[in-house]
Amino acid sequence: MTSGLMRRIGTAVLALGLVAFVGACGGGGGGSSESGGGGGTIIKIATQTPLSGDESVQGIAIRNGAELKLQQEAPEFAKMGFTLQLDPQDDKGDPNTGVANAQKLAADPDVLAVVGHLDSGVIIPSEGKYHEGHLPVVSPFNTNPNVTSQWKYPEINRIVGRDDVQGPVGAIFAKQELGVNTVFVIDNITAYGTGVAEAFAQKAQELGMQVVGRESVAKDETDFSNVLNKIADAKPDLVYYGGLYQGFALLLNQAHSRGIQTKWLGPDGTFSKGTVENAKENAIGVYATSIVAPTDFTEAGKKFIEDYKKAYNDTPDPAAIYGYDAMGVVLEALKNAIQENGGKKPTREQLTAAIRAVKDYQGALVHVGFDDIGDNIYAGYYVYQYTSANPDTNGDPRLVAQYDPKGNKVGD
Amino acid sequence: MDILPQLFLDGLVVGFVYALIAVGYTMVYGVLELINFAHGDIFMVGAFVGTEVLVALAGWGLRATADPWLALSLALLPAMAVAAALGVAVERFAYRPLRRSPRLIILISAIGVSFIIEDLVRLVETIHQGKFVLPVPTVFPDVYHVSVPGLPSPLTIKANSLVVVGAAVIMMVVLTLIVSRTRAGRAMRAVAEDPVTAALQGVDVDRIIALTFLIGSAMGGAAGVLFATQYTTITPYIGFLIGIKAFTAAVVGGIGNIPGSFLGGILLGVLEQVGGGFVGAKFQNVFAFCVLVAVLIFKPSGLLGQRVQEKV
Lengths: 412, 312
Description:
The complex is a heterodimer of chains A (about 400) and B (about 300).
Chain A: H1 2-27, E1 41-49, H2 56-79, E2 82-90, H3 95-107, E3 111-116, H4 120-132, E4 137-139, H5 146-149, E5 156-158, H6 163-176, E6 182-187, H7 191-206, E7 210-216, H8 225-234, E8 238-242, H9 245-257, E9 263-266, H10 273-279, E10 287-290, H11 299-312, H12 320-340, H13 348-356, E11 361-362, E12 367-368, E13 381-385, E14 398-403
Parallel strand pairs in A: 1-2, 1-3, 3-4, 4-5, 6-7, 6-8, 8-9, 9-10
Antiparallel strand pairs in A: 10-13, 11-12, 13-14
Helix pairs in contact in A: 2-12, 3-4, 6-7, 9-10, 12-13
Chain B: H1 4-32, H2 39-59, H3 68-95, H4 103-129, E1 134-135, E2 143-146, E3 155-158, H5 159-181, H6 183-193, H7 195-200, H8 205-231, E4 233-234, H9 238-253, H10 258-279, H11 284-298
Antiparallel strand pairs in B: 1-4, 2-3
Helix pairs in contact in B: 1-5, 1-8, 1-9, 1-10, 2-3, 2-4, 2-8, 2-9, 3-8, 5-6, 5-8, 6-8, 9-10, 9-11, 10-11
């Protein structure tokens, strides 16, 4: 009787799990196995981003962007006799998982390159595994200086700018455009958040602004009342949050419900649909520095938005296009490497060299050329302000200032 | 330090939330000597059910701020019911079949259940809302600035904080009455003391254990709703850290001891806020867990706990 009952429950749980699985695959907008035509030599390009957990809004967007580019290019590679496959990995925003996945990818001979990660704190410890496996990586999103500067591995490249420019750009913007004199700086205790917040605070002091508070709140903490009390006490002109959208939205909401009024600025990790979705009206008027031009800046950018909406039935998060263009760089280099190798599948070492050799690639939005440590010499910096609480348009961000790769203001 | 009274107040509020969750840990430990690691996730489910109700009410044209008491009650009741049902189900299917196994096995089962609940909620919310990080509608929007003679700056008190504390106090009083005055409460205490003897006296031990889970989980679910309205955004993963802190509170107060868990929760909340205020918010969690270590070293039975015979 009991065992019969247990068996039935077991079946029910299994069925439920199956439904969940099918649902998850259906939601993914077409699995990787569909890409590629006939049975050529398989080449896998992996992505490593958080697909679960609370950073997954951006992580999934990067994966989707990369997948879209791969599917668009797959027919061309099929003509050359190669079947492209996406190998999406979930790093969970967790260094241990990221390193374990990197090890696994390095051990799979079909994997030739990686697009990843979201967190600088995850890519930095994983770099050793990529280097040992000679596996080239194009980072779509990691802005911490150490990503390229610490070990200077030939395998590691990024298409975005650096926080030792992004943070100072935020400070320059606050001083010159907003006339701010006192700032309060918070970070989320990650390589990324702390790094960019420190860079901001240092430049702020150099520019003669007063840092009236410097606090850290762990990224999985939900209660900001401690820090908010200090903000209320210090009454800064501007609060800078070095972290990701989720903590930023919590901070904005709790500050608002406590009646704190000040200006807010965050780095690119806060420039997300997630900020608007969670903070709603409280996001209006908030500033964010970013490393990407407005998506509707270029024709290719507009086309990307249309294609993305068609494929995933969703507005792309600003992070999605980074995944798209990072994959674009990988595939461009792959084509060159195949040609140089006489039409045969190149080795990882050959692809590594081909990626570093990219000097002038125009993606949908990002202009990419790598210097000798894998930084993008064309990476610009942009400051946006949310003008609405509509998450479907990412809060209708308005471009308020633009800076060149060295942090000098563009235009006027 | 000017903001000390304010830190103390905020600590009290979060402390009452910890206390409500800690009760669930302590009651289950009392009857089963089991640390129910899924309890933090039951709290999270309560938060989601309450938030969904508030969102649905707003969809039907009843904004929570128009009639906050009605909205809060309508959110609390289903949240408590769902959390209670979930707690009983977890006990029935994940713990009862393993009750005669070594403690470690049940502990592993609890951790597994915790992951299942987190990801199921994530799945359901993603299908239902298209996202799983939910902003919570405001229920009590007022903020009071109270000037206290002798203090340099006025205290900021959210109306919602008062509701959290008030609701927590009412629930704790009711719980204490149930445990100390009713037949079921007496049976619960008897099972906690000695399940075999209690069974010999005609107590249906299985039913009492289920009842313990039901009450503890309902309080956890209520804490979830109060937490959601106070801290404005919820994710399926909020249960973990708060669960661990509430567990700490239960241990600090003396695990198995209900008044001890109230005391432990409030103490932990205040210490963490005030400590974080002095040494920096980044050490807030360090502070909380240092308290745990200190209590385990110097008074392992907790502040109000008695030395129980080691059964683990």
